[in-house]
């Protein structure tokens, strides 16, 4: 009997899949599971990849960071990386984080996650803008506005410039909604209505934890 063919949809982004990962992120006592956080990001990168090679430099950076965190999740101390809370405690207790300048631990879980965490704020702002947007609004403008209000302040000029150029070639709102792969525009808006508060909660919990531990400026 012939082997069943691989489902071509497997490689397609689905906003629902990302939503499911972020749903699984929070434990009962509001700890953030690293495994699901990372798989949420993997899903988002799929989306980015489906937009074309112009976004390759962004995708490459995100994948590099995802791989670092996955390395910890699969490494010898994986139980210390089950949640972001455990990771922060473990790395700080064992002096595994460069706190003021880059040194022996340039790829600590804490600094790596901080980069994705800052990008999550961009995502929250962008998805909310998309959710309330009208038919004729430009994704490039929504994306740039969200970026300028958040992530851009952590980037040097050259990265801001490259990001700005990439935003210009984003597909229009309708095509963008189609790539999200959840159905009609109404369905997209409804899934976004569920996704944004979840992403926002995960962001806030991480932000509070990092602020308490004074980790928000890790080099
Ligand atoms: C849909 C359009 C996607 C636009 C993405 C907007 C974010 C723009 C980020 C530009 C980052 C450029 C690459 C370089 C970054 C690094 O310099 C910088 C600092 O790292 P370092 O301290 O190790 O040096 N890295 C970062 O800030 C991390 C950036 C991670 C960006 C991940 C973006 C994933 C986007 C996923 C899009 C999903 C859209 C969802 C719609 C349903």
From TrEMBL:
Reactions accelerated catalytically: N-(9Z-octadecenoyl)-sphing-4-enine-1-phosphate(in) = N-(9Z-octadecenoyl)-sphing-4-enine-1-phosphate(out); N-(hexadecanoyl)-sphing-4-enine-1-phosphate(in) = N-(hexadecanoyl)-sphing-4-enine-1-phosphate(out)
Keyword annotations of the record: Cell membrane, Cytoplasm, Endosome, Golgi apparatus, Lipid transport, Lipid-binding, Membrane, Nucleus, Transport
InterPro entries, alphabetized: GLTP_sf, Glycolipid_transfer_prot_dom
Membrane topology type: Peripheral membrane protein
Gene Ontology terms for molecular function: ceramide 1-phosphate binding; ceramide 1-phosphate transfer activity
Domain Glycolipid transfer protein stretches: 33-181
A GO cellular component annotation in the UniProt record: cytosol
Any GO BP: negative regulation of interleukin-1 beta production
Subcellular location: Cell membrane; Cytoplasm, Cytosol; Endosome membrane; Golgi apparatus, trans-Golgi network membrane
Family: Belongs to the GLTP family.
UniProt name for this protein: Ceramide-1-phosphate transfer protein
Organism name: Takifugu flavidus
Upper lineage: Eukaryota, Metazoa, Chordata, Craniata, Vertebrata
């Amino acid at each position: 009997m012939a082997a069943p063919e691989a489902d071509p949809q497997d490689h397609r982004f689905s906003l629902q899949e990302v939503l499911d990962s972020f749903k699984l992120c929070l434990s009962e006592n509001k700890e953030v599971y690293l495994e699901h956080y990372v798989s949420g990001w993997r899903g988002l990168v799929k989306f980015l990849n489906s937009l074309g090679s112009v976004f390759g430099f962004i995708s490459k950076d995100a994948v590099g960071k995802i791989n670092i965190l996955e390395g910890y999740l699969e490494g010898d101390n994986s139980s210390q990386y089950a949640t972001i809370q455990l990771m922060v405690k473990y790395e700080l207790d064992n002096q595994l984080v460069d706190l003021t300048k880059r040194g022996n631990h340039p790829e600590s879980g804490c600094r790596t996650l901080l980069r994705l965490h800052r990008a999550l704020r961009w995502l929250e702002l962008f998805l909310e803008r998309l959710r309330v947007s009208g038919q004729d609004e430009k994704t490039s403008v929504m994306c740039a506005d969200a970026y300028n209000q958040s992530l851009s302040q952590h980037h040097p000029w050259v990265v801001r410039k490259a990001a700005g150029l990439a935003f210009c070639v984003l597909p229009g709102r309708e095509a963008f909604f189609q790539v999200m792969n959840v159905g009609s525009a109404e369905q997209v808006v409804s899934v976004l209505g569920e996704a944004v508060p979840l992403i926002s909660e995960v962001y806030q919990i991480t932000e509070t934890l990092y602020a308490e531990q004074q980790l928000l400026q890790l080099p």
